[in-house]
């Protein structure tokens, strides 16, 4: 396929909540929605999707921003970020408010659950979409949300200590944790200024025993030589190297999804 996904992927538009996006699907097994990070479904994101398929999941990748298969560049990143800031679809991203895209992702999760069966589906959000995975878990079909470097709301002022969820969503998730054993997994580099420790502390306060954190040391002089500027955990250039912390992070996500979706 010319969009970066190879011929093994099926592509079709999916419409919900007044939005239409191309969704790429492949694999068999429990369902996992993989929401791309900025600037979109880059080759690195597609590589992660292929890895999840090989791990035994039915994967759906919605192209909600950017051009599938286009490599990330500085200009492309900036243009995608600008679109996110001004689009109605991502409106209120800096406040404790639902966004239209969250309703879309909940509907996609329901559709994938119907298609793949099982106890429910997982959802992986990254960077700007990190928090969307948790917000989507208000939908009962989402039973394994993964938040990789959840960078919204912007980490300054009160935003550094916020989950980005509405009070109603937090209450629903707390109930699911208590009554259903819902659990969410979060990943971050420790020196990532866009995902401060205070944000993970906020998730822990909101979810209690339903929160799991996988944090990678990126402080100055860390033993793995990870730069303090490191941000994208699951699409890190070294994530395919055995022994690297980001490789272990990918393995932790796969184990989490297998355990939760097999319930």
UniProtKB/TrEMBL annotation:
<protein>
    <submittedName>
        <fullName>Dienelactone hydrolase family protein</fullName>
    </submittedName>
</protein>
<dbReference type="GO" id="GO:0016787">
    <property type="term" value="F:hydrolase activity"/>
</dbReference>
<dbReference type="Pfam" id="PF01738">
    <property type="entry name" value="DLH"/>
</dbReference>
<dbReference type="InterPro" id="IPR002925">
    <property type="entry name" value="Dienelactn_hydro"/>
</dbReference>
<feature type="domain" description="Dienelactone hydrolase">
    <location>
        <begin position="29"/>
        <end position="144"/>
    </location>
</feature>
<keyword id="KW-0378">Hydrolase</keyword>
<dbReference type="InterPro" id="IPR029058">
    <property type="entry name" value="AB_hydrolase_fold"/>
</dbReference>
């Amino acid at each position: 396929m010319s969009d970066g996904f190879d011929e093994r992927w099926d592509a079709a538009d999916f419409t919900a909540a007044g939005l239409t996006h191309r969704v790429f699907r492949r694999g068999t097994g429990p369902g996992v929605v993989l929401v791309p990070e900025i600037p979109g479904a880059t080759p690195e994101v597609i590589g992660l999707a292929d890895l999840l398929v090989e791990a035994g999941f039915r994967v759906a990748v919605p192209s909600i921003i950017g051009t599938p298969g286009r490599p990330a560049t500085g200009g492309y990143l900036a243009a995608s970020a600008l679109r996110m800031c001004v689009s109605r679809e991502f409106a209120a991203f800096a406040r404790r408010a639902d966004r239209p895209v969250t309703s879309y992702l909940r509907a996609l999760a329901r559709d994938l659950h119907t298609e793949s069966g099982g106890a429910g589906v997982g959802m992986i959000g990254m960077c700007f979409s990190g928090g969307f995975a948790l917000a989507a878990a208000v939908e009962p079909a989402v039973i394994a949300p993964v938040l990789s470097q959840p960078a919204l709301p912007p980490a300054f002022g009160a935003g550094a200590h916020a989950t980005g969820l509405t009070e109603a969503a937090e209450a629903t998730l707390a109930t699911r944790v208590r009554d259903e054993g819902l659990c969410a997994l979060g990943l971050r580099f420790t020196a990532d200024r866009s995902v401060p420790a205070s944000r993970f502390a906020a998730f822990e306060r909101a979810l209690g025993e339903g929160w799991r954190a996988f944090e990678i040391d990126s402080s100055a002089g860390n033993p793995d030589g990870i730069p303090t500027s490191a941000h994208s955990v699951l699409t890190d250039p070294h994530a395919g190297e055995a022994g690297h912390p980001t490789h272990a992070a990918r393995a932790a996500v796969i184990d989490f999804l297998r355990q939760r979706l097999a319930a």
